[in-house]
Write a structure and sequence with these properties.
single chain, alpha/beta, 7-stranded mixed sheet, 3-stranded antiparallel sheet
Length: 385
Amino acid sequence: MPVIPYARQSISQADVEAVVEVLRSDWLTQGPCIERFESEVAAYCGARQAVAVSNGTAALHLACMALGLGPGDRLWTSPNTFVASANCARYCGASVDFVDIDPRTGNLSVERLAEKLVDAEKKGTLPKVVVPVHFAGQPCDMEAIGGLARRYGFRVVEDASHAIGAEHRGEKTGSCAHSDITVLSFHPVKIVTTAEGGMTLTNDEQLAQRLRLLRTHGITRNAAEMRGASEGPWYYQQVALGYNYRLTDLQAALGSSQLKRIGAFLARRRALVERYHQKLAGLPLTLPHEAPGAASAWHLYVVQVDDPARRESVFRRMREKGVLVNVHYIPVHLQPYYRDLGFKPGDFPEAERYYQRAISLPLYFELTEAQQDAVCEALRESLDG
């Protein structure tokens, strides 16, 4: 049978035409498509400001910079995430710690966060920034996390790289109702793609201005931001140390076109998830589920093999059958770089248990029901083998 990837993009003729239109225009980058895409994403998510960047990792880095994270500061995040959710702190010279997960959702546990904050307050080691990760598209309980932020004085950056389109108690992920900044990713395996790309969302105009400045080398042409008088219409100043984290108009045009289909993307994913729920019921697996009040964007469909000793053999058999399953994620604290910082196995047992059993099944817009049936049959045979 032909191989079935765990994820892939869906590119329509309208997407192609949108990119070709930009190729034939006067602006390939730093043009009008950027602001249009930013406005569209902000409107969709319900945020006041959006700043497009080159990828989700850049968005996390800029979010930490804009919030003033630096040496001597601490960032806490989930160990069940891609390494970028933690690396963004290290880029700024800050230290990293983790909060164990809720095994039901794979997200940072609000209960463990609350306990850790009590202990940190006593020790004088409270975080400056907390990065909850909406793992697999499942939204975190941001209302509870926002309440803890107000109590303990930390800033919140939502890593919603998996979760555009998710909702929690009627609030869209990205609205920043309980956070300072939300970060999105538009990598090809994500729900909406710009090939590569990311977005920062915020309701704070000053943070948005800072993000725009840092996105483009720390350079401004705005006289109000300069030191001393402008020398003429050509004049610019570098007023901060920033980066070249810009998105191109080609990517923004693709993103705008993709965003028009997000309703269909989400509906198809949710329909496929319901079929998985039905077809995999009764197998020796733990299936993913939505927490009360949550509407997942279903970026990933992660099952957990009941017997962790069999996960590797099931994974290998699935791939031998042409089903390119994946694993999300190796806990960040177990990576050699973070072990060198003092983390060790056993530090975050729920994340480690989750990892030892997890397999991500194929889930994407163009996955057919026949392909999904083949995935389910391959999984059943691999579990029986």
